[in-house]
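From the thread on structure requests for the teaching lab: each student submitted one protein with a one-line request. Submission from student K.M.:

"Model non-reducing end alpha-L-arabinofuranosidase from Hymenobacter chitinivorans DSM 11115, tokens only."
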Amino acid sequence: MPTSSPSRIVRFASSVALSALGLAPALAQTQPTAATTLTVQVNKPGAPVSKNMYGLFFEDINFAADGGLYPELVKNKSFEIPGQHFIGWNAIGGAAALAAYTVSSEKPISATNNHFVRLTAATASPDAGLINEGFRGMGIKQDAEYTFSVYLRRGPGSVSGLQVTLEEEARRGAGPEVAPSGRVLAQTTITGLTGEWKKYTAVLKASGTAPKARLKLTLEGAGTLDMDVVTLFPKDTWNKRENGLRTDLVQLLKDMNPGFLRFPGGCIVEGRTLTERYQWKETIGEVNSRVPLVNRWNMEFRHRSTPDYFQSFGLGFFEYFQLSEDIGAEPVPILNVGMACQFNSAELAPITAAGGPSVSEATGHNHADDDPTLETFIQDALDLVEFANGPASSPWGAKRVAMGHPAPFNLKYIGIGNEQWGPQYLERYEPFAKAVKAKYPGINIVSSAGPAPAGDLFDKATARLRELKAEVIDEHYYASPEWFRQNVGRYDNYPTTGSKIFAGEYAAQTVGIASPDNKNSWDTAISEAAFMTGLERNADKVVMASYAPMLAHVDAWQWTPNMIWFDNLRSYGTPNYYVQKLYALNKGTTMLPVQRADNGKNGQDNLFSSAVADDKTGEIVVKLVNYSPQARPVTVNLQGVKKLGKTGKATVLASNDLNAVNSLDQPRNVAPKDESFKVGSAAVVTYTLAPNSFTVLRIPGKH
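Reply posted by the TA:
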């Protein structure tokens, strides 16, 4: 994920500048007066379309994990955030009813969960306790059930229980004060306290719906009570798992029929420093033992500062693999290559160091203060493949089995580095890739071409990675809608042999890179649809593509635009989401060449097209983008088609307003609509494209 570097904004913002580099030939803006004839060469099939062609990019940005896909409602459940142990927690009434509330590490639950809160009330009071605010509130649904759990240990005094209240966030009155409590949605009392740590569980059933509720915990009686690992988890999770994921968001992802899921990022893979890097081994095993880490995005943008943004890792690598399996996507984990984010500290792990761990050495959990060398990162990669694919008899395979997944995850791809550039990356990539291929020759390696789609660093990285026979080179581009339309032929002259291309992160920007004013407008989405015809036409070179970022909380985002937006209860797909979905649902199996009768290039007169055969359904699929305010008639000749059917289906995504957007209240303002059409007996389809439209024609016929 790019950051707000001014040089990068300049690099991407101007499609004119990119044209000057020879990347974007100007396209004629005149509109045709007669039907444009396209010939789909059904009898001259091209390359197979990768089954992983269109997929998903996940990064924990915009509260995508905690507060989003991962539905734990309690923020900072274990008081483990270094130096900020009370993030998310506030004493009721400013602690007027509490004699003290402090964080302690005296005889904790475990070595990894070694902080807890100690509450002391001098006298009994209904306000002696704490409130957890959740992630911009807690979304609560009427009649839904929520599992509350907590570890408690009674101290001196006569505390007899802990009252648990789920209440609607109090609304502000005319003045600045906030009422101490709101409407009660559910309540219970935990009793049977002892002088030793013990886990208590209760189920709360909500009596009402509230988009911004909160959890209130108060002491019954006076005295001292120790408390840790406070959780509130909805029972309604994907596949009803205990540590499951938010159902509406997973459903939106599954509905796309994605070919892959790239995770966990994005720049959080790198961290601002190596100390803050993402370490997958810290994200598996018992959920309550996973140590939280600062999120790389919490202070990246001053205009969207989010100092309470941390990663709990409740959604960790095991859950990512499980999600990939659930939605039928190939897992594509991306690992740190020994480099912190180059837009931040640019800290480097040494390539070799005396006394460092050897590549063959089996290691357990990493620790941030280990001063890791490159060998540490390589070993992490080798161990990850074993965790995903190894048998129960292997050390890391055994950990996967212990977490409840005896079968291998069948990992085929691994990414080395996220978005690194320059000689520092290449000199680390080469030994890294060599070690992975030596032990796991069947693993396909995804490599980085850097954050920009052009320039000296991009060219050098691409050339060297091709020399090293990298299987997949990851290219990123965030640019104006015009850039996407003008660069539809980007891959036409790429080599057909050797390394393949992963368009790993892309999105059209209405204003500029990292601008808070970017919108998920129809203009951005239709421009991406136009560009994707170029990806499909080059299926022999491009094997994977994903929009980025994927998810954003409407009250807690750092970056725009994003594919799916949500609040604590609702979610919606943007026009960009529907473009991605239509491509994924209609990717077909074999690319078919498309020619214009006037020998014009793809995109001439702002008409963009591509076609595939779908051998599974026996259909020809034609994708057409009309970036024009006028309706446009087209004639599609199906050259050499066999067993032509009489009726086809058109799916149309269109809006007369290029600035149109979707929203929580109008989630389908711009959304696909289906209609049928007649197929001519002479293997000819005549169809009129709506103004500013992306149309998918499915025609019964075989090649």
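TA comment: The chain has three domains: 31-49+590-700, 56-71+238-553, 89-234. The first strand starts at residue 36 and ends at 41.
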